[in-house]
Amino acid sequence: MPVPVLLVTGFLGAGKTTVINALLAAAQGKRLAAVVNDFGAINIDAELLAGSAEGIVALQNGCICCTLQGDLLRTLSLLLRQDPPPEGIVIETSGVSDPAEIVRSLLDPVIWREAALDAVLCVADARALADRPTALEEALLLSQLRSGDFILLNKSDAVTADELAAVRGRLSALLPARTVLETSHGAVPRDLFFNEEPPEVPDRSAPPASRFTTPGFETLSWTADRPLSPARFQLVVSRLAPLLARAKGVLRFEGQERPMLFQMVGERATFGAAPPPPPGAAEVRLVFIAENGRLREDALRAMLNGCLV
């Protein structure tokens, strides 16, 4: 299984390091490595993160999406060869960088086999966006927001309810397919990131109990013992994408012997080789995560059942 990678982007002062600290503090025993990138000779962010992660790697004097891109890829290679390797990697971009190029690099099939991009989290300053509505027209911030699968409105406690609603409204109009989260002090709903492989469901006739604990979100799981039609599954995924925060699982398509690892977050779906399922496991195991009330379980299961060969 590839090691999941979370890319954290956002403008200067939005609170990226605070968010990463919160993620590392809530790791619950999972070995996480952090790659931080501060635009300057002295990497203050690495000092703030020191002691919080399994491994801190500081990339200095440059931006990982331009001059230091080669350094980042070499760093990932070194991290993956640790014994034991990390179970997740968090990468922080510089606040003055456009993450689009590093996203493209992480989606390279060769890299994805070992270090799969799990999600892109864009941290935005709710107070700054409320004070400067025109900031959303600036090219760099707009590119950072567009790269994010999730937009985290940090410092939400520093704005009024009306100001927050106005910021959310502008973001929804600009980027309607994004999941927008609100937080203060960098607290992150960890369940949305570094998700585990879908749990086994001994009783296939009944839906499994959800283990998802993030307020405001729910999970629906689905399993099957027959392969899927690629064309029908693609159609269903395109219909579900606007409703989902993310989806993940193991599946097998018609005509394929090996199972595939499937992940969808935002508008991006990826497929890769999955290890053989354990004895007795269903051929297809999928988990869907959405904001409460956005999915109807009966409709979802009907759509997925229609994909079976």
What does this structure look like?
The protein is α/β, with parallel strands linked by helices and 309 residues long. It has two domains: 3-192, Rossmann fold, CATH 3.40.50.300; 217-305, CobW-like, C-terminal domain (Hypothetical Protein Yjia, Chain: A,domain 2, 2-Layer Sandwich). Helix content is 28%, strand content 25%. The chain contains ten helices and twelve strands. It has a seven-stranded parallel sheet with strand order 3-2-4-1-5-6-7, with helices on both faces. A five-stranded antiparallel sheet has the order 8-12-9-10-11, covered by helices on one side. The chain is globular, with a radius of gyration of 20 Å. The two termini are 27 Å apart. One of its GO terms (molecular function) is hydrolase activity.
In short:
One of its GO terms (molecular function) is hydrolase activity. The protein is built from ten helices and twelve strands. With 309 residues, the chain is an alpha/beta fold.
Spell the H/E element sequence. Answer: EHEHEHEHHEHHEHEEHEEEEH
How does the overall form come out from the CA principal axes? globular
CATH class membership of the largest domain: Alpha Beta
Number of strands: 12
Query: Which class of secondary structure composition applies to the elements?
Result: alpha/beta
* Number of domain units: 2
CATH architecture heading of the largest domain: 3-Layer(aba) Sandwich
Strand order of the largest sheet: 3-2-4-1-5-6-7
CATH superfamily of the largest domain: P-loop containing nucleotide triphosphate hydrolases
Low-confidence stretches: 39-44, 59-68, 198-209
CATH topology heading of the largest domain = Rossmann fold
Largest sheet: 7 strands, parallel
First and last CA, distance? 27 Å
Mean of all residue-level pLDDT scores: 81
Family: Belongs to the SIMIBI class G3E GTPase family. ZNG1 subfamily.
Region (Disordered): 192-212
Function: Zinc chaperone that directly transfers zinc cofactor to target proteins, thereby activating them. Zinc is transferred from the CXCC motif in the GTPase domain to the zinc binding site in target proteins in a process requiring GTP hydrolysis.
Pfam families: cobW, CobW_C
